[in-house]
Design goal:
- Keywords: Magnesium, Metal-binding, Molybdenum, Molybdenum cofactor biosynthesis, Transferase.
- It is an enzyme of class 2 (transferase).
- The protein is built from seven helices and 26 strands.
- By secondary structure, it is α+β, with helices and mostly antiparallel strands.
- The protein has a six-stranded mixed beta sheet, with no helix packed on it. A six-stranded mixed beta sheet has the order 16-13-17-21-20-18, sandwiched between helices. Strands 19, 22, 23, 24, 25 and 26 form a six-stranded mixed beta sheet that branches.
- A hairpin with a 2-residue loop joins strand 20 and strand 21.
- The longest helix is centred in the last third of the chain and has 19 residues.
- The protein starts with 9 loop residues before the first helix and ends in a 7-residue tail after the last strand.
- The chain binds ligand LQZAQKY5 and molybdate ion (MOO).
Amino acid sequence: MTGTQPPIPLDEALDRLLRGIEPLASEHLDTEQAIGRYLGEDLVALRTQPATDLSAMDGYALHADDDRGPWQVVGESAAGHPFRGSFGRGEAIRISTGAHMPEGDMAVLLQENCTRTGEVIALNGEGEPTARHIRRAGYDFSKGQVLLPAGTRIDANQMALALGSGHARLCVHRLPSLAVIDSGDELAPSPEDCPAHRIPATNGAMLEALARAPAGRIERLGPVADTMEALLAALDNAGACDVIVTTGGASVGDHDLVRPALERWGARIDFWRVAMKPGKPLMVGRKGSQVILGLPGNPASAYVTAFLFLLPLLRKLAGCLRPGPQAISLPTALDLAPGHARREFLRATVAEGKVHPVLEQDSAGLLALATATALIDRPPNAPETKAGTYVPVYLLENGGIA
Ligand SMILES: Nc1nc2c(c(=O)[nH]1)N[C@H]1C(S)=C(S)[C@@H](COP(=O)(O)OP(=O)(O)OC[C@H]3O[C@@H](n4cnc5c(N)ncnc54)[C@H](O)[C@@H]3O)O[C@H]1N2
Ligand code: MOO
């Protein structure tokens, strides 16, 4: 490929990046250690829940056809301590929330709907006994039922389901390892030691933080100098990682060496330049099974391209079923000027159900980037868009996927 080809559309670029990417191998982990991993196989219930009918309320269990009272309280079913005997009409069992219902066609009388005198309860006019307060056996899930498909991310709530359905261990995919290489002679490693001709290196740390959830091990290499030797050495050091992401040096300047360095290193460049703003000089290469993403150096360009390309790539390697960010639709709070020929991602905030583009959209602006909590997705050559019109939006929290 050559650099003279026009930028390719974003959807094509994403398709070319993700096509053929297979999830990494799976392994078995203790369920509580599987947080943040993606299921390697469907989660199938090993037990039925609830295993028997349970009371959903504190009160009294009685026969469903015996709803007038009064009743003699002849026993108790507490959570973890079922009532083992039998009882007749005119009798009731004290029952607590989560306790086993006695066998038979039962109803529950809430304790606030009766008056208790010694061992006798009577209706107090506030409500009747009802079977609605019974949680039926298996209403939640049944043994053998597929509960979550392979590729689902295990977060706190999915972990609870896995434990509840009987899984002490889970089959989950390995998380990809990532090397982050930032380059540029102007980059100062320490923000406290930064003369005027330099700027603090921010992209490496930002990309590491952004990728922390879907990546396993992350290696930071850099900032490295704008020389072929320094870039080749960094690429050699990144050799064992599943994914390498570079930032800076991706454009056409005399010191933009990432592409020639990748080619010299033996990588095949799949494509370079995507019709998006920010982020045009995005590059994708491969060496064996390794994928290399070359992101632009401007911080907003690096962030947006990492959000739209790096995170989905890592998620797909980690076994995620739907690795791309999910757009929501929100009304724009301000008029949007006619868009650019490239598909544009406006940094924005969300408040009171509306999306507000931030005023500074320059791709080098750190302050505007730090203000943003969302991206507005503007199609190529978008017409002027009036305030109140619904536009597609990606929320930045959780990589836009939660
Ligand atoms: N003649 C042209 N010039 C440029 C074009 C073009 O098409 N023709 N594209 C522009 C676009 S779009 C972008 S985006 C930038 C991207 O350039 P590079 O990827 O080569 O990035 P650098 O030149 O190395 O840096 C750009 C900017 O970002 C700062 N930077 C870089 N790395 C970091 C870092 N780790 N932490 C903080 N800041 C970083 C760097 O100092 C520069 O200010 O190219 C345009 N030019
Ligand atoms: O399109 Mo570049 O990524 O902003 O400045």
